[in-house]
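pasting for the record
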Amino acid sequence: MQFSLFQPLPYFAPELPTGWPQSPSKFAPRYGLDSVRHNLEIIEAADEGGFDYIAVAEHHYAARQLCPSPTLAAALISQRVKNAKLAILGVDLPLHNPVQVAEELAMLDTFSGGNLLVGLFRGTPNEYATYGHNPGESKAMFEEGVELLLSAWSEPEPFGWEGVHYRHRMVSIWPQPVQRPRPPVLVSGNSPASAEFAAKHRLKIGLSFMPVEFIPKAVTGYHEAAERHGWKPGPEDVLWRGFAHVAETDEKAKEVAKKYNFGDLHGILAPTERQAPSFLSVVSEAMEAGFGGAFSGGGGAVQTPTPQPILGSPDTVVERLRAVQEAGVGIADLILSSDALPPEVVLEAVNLMCKDVIPAFR
C-alpha cells in the first residue's frame, strides 16, 4: 500500500475563527506566515520520511484549509519536495472552466517532471455558496467537464466543443502533460453512479471518510462496473481518505484527539448565525442534487455512520490500516493535521508514521 499525506494547509493560530464562512477580519498576517512555515515543515518531513504523495485540495473561505487554489499550492510544494509525487485531491471542477483547469494541470505535470496525480470532484456542498454556482447543475457540469478535460489532454489536433454546459470554438492546450497518455485521474467512488462513471472512463476512485466495513462493497461495485467496460482495476486504482493520529501509546493518541476535537468532519460546514439561512438553503439544494451518501453496493446510495479517525500507537495504526488495505485499498490518503492541532504535535505524528508505520507496509 502507498501512503499520501493529505495536508489541508491549516491556519495555525492561538485563537481560531469558527463557523463558515469565516470573517476576513480574523486573519492575522503574522499567523498566516507562521502557518506557511509550519505546513512546509510538515510536508518536508513527510517527503523525507517515505510518504509516496503529498496531497492538497480546493476549499474556500475557511481557516481549516488555506487552499483556494490547489494547483498553485502544488506548484509551490513541488519546489520543496524531492521524493514524493504531487496529488491534487482535488479540484472542484464545476466551479471552473475545465479547459483552463486542463491547461494548469498540464503545466504542473510538465514542471514537476510528470509526478502528478489528479483528483476531480464536485466539492463539498458549501463550496456552491462561494462563486454563486447552481448546485442542482453540478453533477451534469462535473461529468461533462471531466470529459472535456480528458479530451483536451488526448485530442491530437485542435477541436471545438459544443456541450450542454461548456462551449469552446477552439481547444488546443499547450503544454500537454508529459505523462502519456495522460496523468492518472481520480474521481469519487462513494456512490454507485460515481463508480460507474469512473469505470466508464477508466479512472481511479477515491473513497472519502468511508468506514472500513463499507469499503469492500464499494470496491466490488467499482470492479464490476470496470468489467462491464472491458478492463480490470488494481489496488493502486482505489484511494481511501481518513483522519489518522499516531502517538507513542493508544492512550496518548486518544487524549490528543479528545483535547483538540481531531477528526471532526463537519466543523467546516457549520455556518455563522448571520450566514445560516442562505447557507443552509444552498446546502439543501446541493444535497438534493446528489451530494453525500456512501456506496451501498445495491441500487442506490445510503448514508453511512460518521467515520472515526484512526488513532493509536504505531502498532495499533498498522493494524487499522491493514484492514483498510485488505478491503481493497492501494493508497491511504491520511489527514494528520487540523487547524486546532498544534503543528509540533502534527510533526511528531508524521515522524512516527514514517519511522514505524509506513515501513511495516514495505
